[in-house]
Structures are given as C-alpha cells and as structure tokens.
Amino acid sequence: METLDFKIKDGYCLIKYRGELTLDVVEDLKTEILNFLNEHNEKSIVFDLSEISFMDSSGIGFLVHLNNKNRTQNKKLFLFRPSDAVKKTLSLVNLINFFDIVEEEEDIDLREIL
After folding, report:
1. Using one digit for the tens of pLDDT, what is the confidence trace for 33-59?
2. Between helices 23-39 and 57-72, what is the axis angle to 10°?
3. pLDDT tens string 74-106
4. Cα gap 49→15, rounded to integer Å
5. Mind listing the domains of the chain with CATH numbers?
6. Which 3 state secondary structure label does DSSP give 82?
7. How far is it, in rounded angstroms, from Cα 63 to Cα 72?
C-alpha cells in the first residue's frame, strides 16, 4: 500500500513516499505534493525514496518535473536515500546525475539555497 507523509524540518520540507512510483499513482501524487508545497515556502525539498519498490517511466517523468519546477522557483530538490530500484531505473536512463542524491541527513546542504 502506498503512503505519503509530509514534515517541515530545519528549513526544508521532508516528503516520504512508500510504494510503487508508477502511472497508477503519479497524477494523484503530483497533485498532493504540489498542493502541499504551494502551502509551504521552504527553499528545499527532501524527497525520501528509500521505500520505493518499483518505478516506471511515469515515475521518472514525475521526478524530472518536480526537479525542474523547483529549480524555476529557486528551490532545491534532494532525493533522499533512493532505493536500489530507483537508482537502477535512473541509471538506466542516464538521469542519476540529474538529481542531487543524499544518503544521510547531514549531507543535505542548505547553504547554497538559503
């Protein structure tokens, strides 16, 4: 079962999603996340993808969209602890370096965006 949680922490918004990141869930997920982000003006978004079991091309498109949208708003998106499935999928389409990926909270560098 998919779950989505939001927290505001130390100058950033933490989004945690569990489940599959596929065509079946992307539109609803996009709506929920963008609505939450519109209500909060944090300069950084940390998207915890540690519990993603599968991601298809719709999931890739969603992450690219979220990253680009944040960049145009002078915000930064970090992919936090992406699962092996996420890393593998992003690597297959040569997008692993398109994202700022962090494995530990202390690696989230907010200085360049604050």
Report:
1. 989 988 888 888 999 999 999 999 999
2. 20
3. 889 999 999 999 999 999 999 999 999 999 877
4. 9
5. 3-106 (3.30.750.24)
6. coil
7. 14
Q: Which of 8, 6, 25, 26 is nearest to 16 (CA)?
A: 6
DSSP string, 75-96: -EEEEES--HHHHHHHHHTT-G
Rounded to 5°, the CA angle 5-47-85 comes to 105
What is the 3-class SS of 40-72, one letter each residue? CCCCEEEEEEEEEEEECHHHHHHHHHHHHHHHH
Tokens of 78: 């970090």
Distance CA(33)–CA(26), nearest Å, equals 10
